[in-house]
Amino acid sequence: MTREQYLDLSVVKNFIGWMAKRLDAEHAPFPHSYLMKRQKKVLRFESLFDAVSQYDFQHKDFAEFLKERDFYSAELKKALAKNDAKKTAALCETIHHWGEIRFGQPERFTSSGKLVPQLKTAVKILNLRAFDTERDITEVNSNSTWIKIYALLVDGFVMYGSRVGAGLCLLVRSFCEENKLSAVPYPISFPWGYGNLAGNNNPNKGQYKFPPFTSRKQRVRRTVEASWLLEAVLEKAPRSQFNKYPPKHRIRALEAALFMMGYSLLDVPESFGQDAKQ
Predict the structure, then answer these.
(1) SS3 of 105, please?
(2) Mean pLDDT, range 74-83, rounded to an integer
(3) Residue 191: which of 153, 162, 159 has the closest Cα?
(4) Is 130 exposed, middle or buried (CB count within 10 Å of its CB: 0-12, 13-18, 19+)?
(5) Under 8 Å between Cβ of 257 and 52
(6) Is residue 104 in a domain?
(7) What DSSP assignment string belongs to 49-96?
(8) How many structural domains compose the chain?
(9) CA atoms within 13 A on the CB side of 28
């Protein structure tokens, strides 16, 4: 399936229109709150834009994250352009730790000479305008680290991890509930994973079930579809506050909003209920 074919699916078009209205609280608020257990406080968002406004990872706000992200992106692209296997391997290892990926076995990179052509092939395959979900992607590795690396190399490719996935699934589930659907339609049934969150981000509820991360093909294909969808959401909302960001950073801002939303999908405990309303 091509980008045009995917975005032309009726349920995808309906969801894009629905989500575009919920980017900013002024149009259609999308409140979400959860308990930050370590800090023993409730974090509350009124909309997706409010979520990116409250971005916090490794004690960095969104502006600081963008600065680091753009640095790693530029350095990695330069290393690939120079066919510098040693620098590319070192950067990939740094990116692995930068993302604080703790779940599963750490990714080990080698400067043996295979990494540079492997990444160049992946970048070519993952071109979002030319990608077809039926194409052979056996040469594209896929886990949390590789997805982050591809997001630094491929324009518009979403850094789809456990938190971003949970945030997107939360929106899809709300869309299904509001429209009284009997189940989550396959085209928007995005995968999720526990990651470092120990089940706090499980989006399954009642008849609304989402698949777990499974195969390499599934993760790459669904990440591409999520990238197509989120770009279309932003294009559908030209007056959104997300447009205050430069074009190349808008998808990163929406990605960051989902990241913040997806930390926990658990209800706030009643003992913290008052705090959630403040």
Answers:
(1) coil
(2) 97
(3) 162
(4) exposed
(5) yes
(6) yes
(7) HHHHHT--BTTB-HHHHHHHHHHHHHHHHHHHHTT-HHHHHHHHHHHH
(8) 1
(9) 12
Question: CB 84: neighbour CB atoms within 10 A?
Answer: 15
Q: Give 179-210 pLDDT, tens digit per residue.
A: 999 999 999 999 998 766 555 889 999 999 99
Spatial distance between the Cα atoms of 231 and 242, rounded to a whole number of angstroms: 12
Report the C-alpha gap between 97 and 102 in whole angstroms.
9
Residue 271 one-letter amino acid: S
Say how far apart CA 157 and CA 33 lie, in whole Å: 27
> Both tokens of residue 161?
């991890």
In a domain, 158, yes or no: yes
Structural domain harbouring 234: 3-21+66-263
Q: Which tokens belong to 147?
A: 């997805």
Q: Which residues pair with 57 in a beta bridge?
A: 60
CA distance 56 to 63: 10
Q: Of all residues in the chain, what percent carry a pLDDT higher than 70? A: 90
